[in-house]
Amino acid sequence: MNDQTPPxxxxxxxxxxxxxxxxDEFVELAADEGFDAEEVEGAIEAASLGPLPVxxxxxxxxxxxxxxxxxxxxxxxxxxEDRPGVTRDRVTYEAEWSGRSFKVVDTGGWExxxxxxxxxxxxxxxxxxxxxxxxxxxxxxxxxxTDTDEAVVRLLRKAGKPVVLCANKVDGPxxxxxxxxxxxxxxxxxxxxxxxxxxxxxxxxxxxxxxxxTAPRETFGAAPGGPRRVALIxxxxxxxxSLLNKVAKEDxxxxxxxxxxxxxxxxxxxxxxxxxxxxxxxxxxRKRVHLQQGADYYASLRTAAAVEKAEVAVVLIDAxxxxxxxxxxxxxxxxxxxxxxxxxxxxxxxxxxxxxHYLEREIETELGQVAWAPRVNVSAxxxxxxxxxxxxxxxxxxxxxxxxPTGRLNAFLGELVASHPHPVRGGKQPRILFGTQAxxxxxxxxxxxxxxxxxxxxxxxERRLREEFGFEGTPVHLSVRVREKRGRRK
Length: 490
Ligand code: GDP
Ligand code: GDP
Known about the structure:
The protein has 490 residues and is of the alpha/beta class. The protein has helices at 20-32, 37-48, 65-73, 117-131, 147-159, 176-180, 201-211, 240-247, 282-286, 295-309, 325-336, 353-366, 389-401, 406-419, 455-469, and strands at 54-59, 92-97, 100-106, 134-140, 163-168, 190-192, 228-233, 268-272, 275-279, 312-318, 340-346, 375-377, 432-439, 444-449, 477-482.
């Protein structure tokens, strides 16, 4: 049976990988099983959504960016960190407003004096803006516009992305005039907000949704046959710039202490394995910025921005050192963003027998959750296994785009449920009734069940899906809808 979409058969549709007739048929089938048709449609549509648009929140330190992010995401996840020098790794969050989902990039939490205030604000704003589809520019209305604010305004103008001006710290009506003064920035209407108390944030978010596109600027597969987008990421000193120089067959390393202040081409087309690839943020990789404080945050922001723009992430890991939490976080960033993933273990030339042994054990314990990612053992120095990089990337992209037709999926699910039923809980046995793959890039499944499926069983289903259909190098999303109504019983 060969009814799987051939991966080289051009880009799959972005939304609703489930075709029109197939979709209708499926909804009908679900209705027969006692599912509400609207709910089924909603579940499939939610799972078929492509990548979310990105909203960046930028501004000077202490204007209230993190406080605003907390408001927008509605949880205390982006904790406002009072201790100086403490940096966060997490920079993107998912948010929802008026029924629309989007990602928020928080540029708070970075030490201002690392590069000097103007350069640092510019650098972080630049990365955030680069990855964003719209920007909220936060200004402290009680302070008014400063020179640094003006510098950001120039960046925003140059980038040409939609901007919503947030006049923050307007805690009461008396602050409204402070907000109005910010018309002078020339960015349109200042929205008076108190991020701290929630005043005005709803109106501001309404304004955001008006300018935020429903899908990211560079939608996957926007240019059929165009170069695939690769993010080469990893913590500092794992060898990203060395690897880039090796694959680009040139030895230029740009030294620029003021990272991000120059606007040279950020991405680069590189020929590799007979194909042209777009490597994201090569300029950022090649700039050798050595910072003490804030370096981690700066690197995280850059990594997050690169991942947002990429289809596949190649995470470079220094095999000569123990796998660190930072390595794991970077892998997690790519997985959570739903990108295809390749793990490249670099500096292989330095490994002795003993280190190799321990490395394998570390990979099992520290990166066991991404055992599905293709792996290459490379050396940017000697050029070892460079030729294996492209096949690994292609494998991951193939898995990422794999679409299992609904008929085939349900045959598989039927067999799985018969041979490995869910354990009986409280006298009941929840059963997967049927399912569909609602989307690709990455593969997203919706399963409809007669009762709650335990996490362990979900993991089992994912494992079996991978065994059956491959999905090498890609995260797989499973969402489960439980039948609420007393439908027909079998
Ligand atoms: P960031 O550096 O831009 O991320 O700023 P923070 O979110 O960390 O906020 C800096 C300080 O301003 C914190 O002490 C916040 O509590 C305070 N702050 C943030 N928003 C408001 C607001 O709307 N009103 C007032 N009065 N204070 C605020
Ligand atoms: P980046 O910060 O990730 O861009 O890392 P770099 O490319 O600057 O490399 C950091 C250090 O690791 C440099 O001293 C490189 O010469 C060294 N390095 C990079 N790749 C290899 C490799 O494959 N083998 C060895 N032995 N050293 C490497």
